[in-house]
Description:
The chain has 339 residues and is α+β, with helices and mostly antiparallel strands. It has two domains: 8-142, Rossmann fold; 151-332, Tumour Suppressor Smad4, CATH 2.60.200. Helices cover 27% and strands 33% of the residues. The chain has eight helices and 17 strands. The longest helix is centred in the first third of the chain and has 16 residues, at 40-55. 48% of the residues are buried.
Amino acid sequence: xxxxxxxxxxxxxxxxxxxxxxxxxxxxxxxxxxxxxxxxxxxxxxxxxxxxxxxxxxxxxxxxxxxxxxxxxxxxxxxxxxxxxxxxxxxxxxxxxxxxxxxxxxxxxxxxxxxxxxxxxxxxxxxxxxxxxxxxxxxxxxxxxxxxxxxxxxxxxxxxxxxxxxxxxxxxxxxxxxxxxxxxxxxxxxxxxxxxxxxxxxxxxxxxxxxxxxxxxxxxxxxxxxxxxxxxxxxxxxxxxxxxxxxxxxxxxxxxxxxxxxxxxxxxxxxxxxxxxxxxxxxxxxxxxxxxxxxxxxxxxxxxxxxxxxxxxxxxxxxxxxxxxxxxxxxxxxxxxxx
Length: 339
């Protein structure tokens, strides 16, 4: 096939580059999120399409047109017989597509191509944002790895749909669930206009270190019992990285069958800044204010006189349907194409 041939457009909005399966991956469907990375995802579509045609040959593709489209497009791709679904975006896009792939319970491979803001799940797998060609070449090679995912058993809804009862449901995540400080950072980053990528997280986080009031939370698990107190942040991680490259759980692996909770106790702004600097290099572990716990499941509880908790799942903000959020690992739930 001529790798330069433009894709044909199907009437259902999907695009077909060539008939027949792609060797090693079966039928491939690629889902692009043009809004990822604060618009950088849209600027990467043409380049990724050219690389995909060159290295894969045959694939279908579709584009999100608004928040939440990832789930619908994934379900449609599965119904059309996709055997490998590739998500092009960042952690939020990847997490929403993977949620549907795992929920389908089918033997479907999952691939990622980075064009987002944080791209932390990709870091866990050694997939670099810097070289789209390397990422596509690794995808075409078809090497797979079974990884764990997390599941938020407690129903939650995207922040923008918090007033819709039908939007609340359990959901899976790839990388991290977070409470407290990182929600303040995500909220502030959404309003920033001139920063991008990992720098966006770092600058907005530094600002929030001097503003964020902290949260009262109880984290409990079977192995560790209950831990109560005033926290700066609580994260429950499947992978090592979060927040644009911070190794928040340095010992974590996406296939160790565990989740890793990091609790940082609230402290003064200057001490917060010192911990932030250490966390950027994974050296926060061992500090008096930091606890790292590993278990197969955790529950985070908040006082019910407060508004229902907002928390992040893979960089997207959700609202819980209750004041306790239960999270568990699902071992070896997803077959991911890796370098």
